[in-house]
Structures are given as C-alpha cells and as structure tokens.
Task: inverse folding
C-alpha cells in the first residue's frame, strides 16, 4: 500500500474529491457499523505506524481541544502553576463553566511542529484521529473535516474506498 505523505498533496486531493467524499460518507452511513469499525481499525493499525505524527503537528494547528478539570490539574502541576493561572492563560470556559477548551488554534503548546507538553497532553490530543475507537460511523463529520489536514485520516479513508470497491 502506497501512502500519501505530504500535507500539500492531501489538501489538493481533498478539494478534488469533495463530492466523492460526500458520497462516501453517505455510503458509510448505510453500512454495518461493526464491519466499518473492523475495517477502520485494521487500516489504522497498518497505516498509523508508517506516519510520524510527532514531526507533523498539523492537528495541533487545526483542532479545537476539549479539556477536563483533571487535565488542567495535571498540566498545572507539570507547568508549576495553579489551575486558576493555567485556565486564565490557556483555557476558555463555556457559559455553564462545565465545558473547557484550549483558547487558541493553533495550540499554545505547539513549537516547531512538536508538542511541548507531549507527555501531559490532553485526551483529545492523545486519541486523535480516534480511528482506533468504536463507532466510527458516529464520527464521520469530524473525520471528514480533518481529511484534508491529517495524513492518517486521508490514507485510511482512501484505502477504505479501495477495500470496499467504492466508486462514484
């Protein structure tokens, strides 16, 4: 399997394949969720080790990351600051105070395509692109939103199309 490994290539291809991907999303929604999960997880296992996410960092330039109170505590401890100071500097809180997100895109903690808090990064960062998780069909919008910016998602989706013989 030949992988596409440059961000400019996948960005260009995403524009060219916009209608095709919309049709593929519809196709996936009509398929058995367990079968799709099995295929996605198999491809994730094959493709992810071939792409060095830590040298890319493109997700850190594009993702909105949810943060939990526990994650704030862990990071505040690591950065030798208080939860309050960390929140004031890096976190935006929703109107109900129960939702928190990193307050800038790209992420504050991205430096030269590398995460400066990698060992203490948030769950949303650890899980992305979440292809190893069940219920892929429930995340189609998010997955295809990042199709043009994530080498792993792009390659998994393109290989899925081949495996299921998808044609528009």
Result:
């Amino acid at each position: 399997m030949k992988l596409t490994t440059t961000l400019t290539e996948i960005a260009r291809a995403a524009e060219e394949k916009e209608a095709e991907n919309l049709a593929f999303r519809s196709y996936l929604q009509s398929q058995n969720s367990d079968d799709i999960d099995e295929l996605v997880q198999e491809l994730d296992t094959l493709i992810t080790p071939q792409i060095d996410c830590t040298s890319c960092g493109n997700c850190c330039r594009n993702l909105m990351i949810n943060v939990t109170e526990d994650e704030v505590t862990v990071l505040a401890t690591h950065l030798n600051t208080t939860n309050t100071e960390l929140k004031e500097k890096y976190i935006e809180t929703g109107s109900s105070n129960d939702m928190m997100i990193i307050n800038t895109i790209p992420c504050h903690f991205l430096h030269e395509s590398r995460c400066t808090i990698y060992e203490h990064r948030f769950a949303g960062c650890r899980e992305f692109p979440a292809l190893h998780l069940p219920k892929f069909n429930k995340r189609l919008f998010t997955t295809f939103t990042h199709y043009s910016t994530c080498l792993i998602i792009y390659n998994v989706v393109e290989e899925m199309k081949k495996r299921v013989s998808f044609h528009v």
Remarks:
- The first strand starts at residue 66 and ends at 67.
- The mean pLDDT is 95.
- Residues 7-59+129-163 form one domain.
